[in-house]
Amino acid sequence: MVDRGCVFCGIVAGVVPAHVVLDDEVAVAFLDRSPLFKGHVLVAPRTHHETLTDLPPAEVGPFFERVRRVAAVLPVALGAAGTFVAQNNVISQSVPHLHVHVVPRNRGDGLRGFFWPRTRYASEEEAAGYATRLRAALG
Questions:
Q1: Could you point out which of 43, 72, 96, 134 has its C-alpha 20 to 30 Å from the C-alpha of 33?
Q2: pTM
Q3: Within-domain flag for 88
């Protein structure tokens, strides 16, 4: 499945230029054009799916194996201490094609925690209520 108007489908098809670092039957990984840090890689499935929840269950494992591989080699290849791995669904997703960010990290690199404000539960009871609702939804 390909979306002709999708820039990532264009990269997968080889018609949109990109600095590709991995290209196989499951995914294409390429440098982000606006990286958090140099070496920031986006891993996208070859098939067009807008979000993680749209990815068929049988494709999740193979896709995340590619994400794992990129996360494993980034520190070795770039001399980074670790990686930050993130994925957005709809909100903050600048390209509506599933992709996972793998970002090289080092202590003192200036990236602090998450990119959004944190909050707290008002009480243990409120937290328990959220957990109960989620467990019920999961079946």
A1: 72
A2: 0.86
A3: yes
